[in-house]
Amino acid sequence: MKKTIKNISLVYCWGNKNLGDKAITPGTIRFLKQVYPDNNLFVLSVFEKDCRNYKESEEYICSKFCDVNFVPQPLAFINEKRIRNSKQKRGAVLNAFIGMVALCMPRVFNRLFKGNAGFDTLIKSDLIIYNGGVLFFHNKINSRRKLILFRLMFPFLLAKRLKIRHAFYGQTFGPFEGIGKNFYKWFFSSAELITTRESQSRQILTEIGVKKTKVENVIDSGFWLDGENCKNTNILQNYGLADQKFIAVVLRASTIGQIGVISEDKAKEYVTFFTGYLSEINKRTGFKIAIVLQVKETDQKISKDVYEYLGEKAVYIDDLQEPEELVALYSRAEFVVSMRLHSIIFALLTNTPCLALYYKSITHKTSGIMQDLKLEDYVFDIDEVSRQLLVDRSLEMIRNKDCISQKIAENILALRNSTLEVFKNRLT
């Protein structure tokens, strides 16, 4: 007989630099509260307690959910920051080593390291759920990030060791190359439920040998944000958009996560492409162009270059701090053009039509989600789509906006309902 679920741990809460990542945790929390309204919910940060990112994330989450317990990351047996400031800089390595030993005798270690709230929280959990994202893949990029990967996997390795029920929420998985296939098959084998946020990941998991019965498709965490209560802001007035029609454009210069950045030549190619496309849309419609930054760290230069070329045709929005502000902005746009997945999701959340652009050679998350929402006619590989096709599809969306918006609303509702059903039937 399965143990009654009382304490639920959600791992991890990501940082705030990317407004898309920032939206994942509150979205997942809102979902979990619908499935488990009376349970104790603990959210584990990916950061240590004395880290600035931890404090910012804690403040953000606790301001929205006063009954949620926010906890530092569990792989923090020693203070990494203190060691990083020394000549050795081996804090992460030492923590990983101690973590591996801790997996051998976790309850003994929990008594020895009583100050490790994250580790203690995991041990006392009845259910551990992994938060959404693109975290588990194996190729030449990820194979070099072993310490980071161990930190990501540690909660589930502990769950496997102690036979604590565990599951994944809304992940994009793969690709799995080389020896990664067998390792990940083993890693996923003990999970009670694995949910993907698009059907392509589900297929990838079955191809490496994960049982089909373990895997279900659900809606991305971002779709659980409360779009209806995100609309009353002063953003439109601040940027002179309150009384005119506009489209929102989100560009991207990083390839996967924030790991790689496109070359200067490729960036120039994209600037030329977008300035030509957006100038044509402005000429044909008169719509203002709002260039929006979702991630300042990597996307600022390419966004600023496009904005400066467009001149008076555009406004540049780079100071939004909350995902809800993006939702509010996109809710008033005629349509959104985005290379960032969560800006696409924020637009769709308010039934705003969207053109989704992605790097086909890097990830399938964007194309997969658009296909599952039956919006495959509005997603394109950025390196294959022509400017004219993008113009034509944009004008089509303008003509058929009401019909497309209704389709978006119906498909999101259906996926939300099926997601709730999956968890209520499989994980209660």
Walk me through this protein's architecture.
With 428 residues, this protein is α/β, with parallel strands linked by helices. The protein folds into two domains: 7-224, Rossmann fold (3-Layer(aba) Sandwich), CATH 3.40.50.11720; 227-409, Rossmann fold (3-Layer(aba) Sandwich), CATH 3.40.50.2000. The chain has 17 helices and 13 strands. The strands form two sheets. The protein has a seven-stranded parallel β-sheet with strand order 3-2-1-4-5-6-7, with helices on both faces. It is globular. The model is unreliable at 83-88 (pLDDT under 50).
Topology:
Elements: E1 7-13, H1 19-35, E2 40-45, H2 52-64, E3 69-71, H3 80-84, H4 91-104, H5 106-112, H6 117-123, E4 127-130, H7 146-162, E5 165-171, H8 180-188, E6 193-196, H9 199-207, E7 215-217, H10 235-238, E8 246-250, H11 264-285, E9 288-292, H12 296-310, E10 314-317, H13 323-331, E11 336-338, H14 341-349, E12 354-358, H15 365-372, E13 379-381, H16 387-399, H17 401-426
Parallel strand pairs: 1-2, 1-4, 2-3, 4-5, 5-6, 6-7, 8-9, 8-11, 9-10, 11-12, 12-13
Helix pairs in contact: 4-5, 4-7, 11-12, 11-16, 13-14
Quick gist of this model?
The chain has 428 residues and is α/β, with parallel strands linked by helices. It has helices at residues 19-35, 52-64, 80-84, 91-104, 106-112, 117-123, 146-162, 180-188, 199-207, 235-238, 264-285, 296-310, 323-331, 341-349, 365-372, 387-399, 401-426; strands at residues 7-13, 40-45, 69-71, 127-130, 165-171, 193-196, 215-217, 246-250, 288-292, 314-317, 336-338, 354-358, 379-381. The chain has 2 domains: 7-224, Rossmann fold; 227-409, 3-Layer(aba) Sandwich (Rossmann fold).
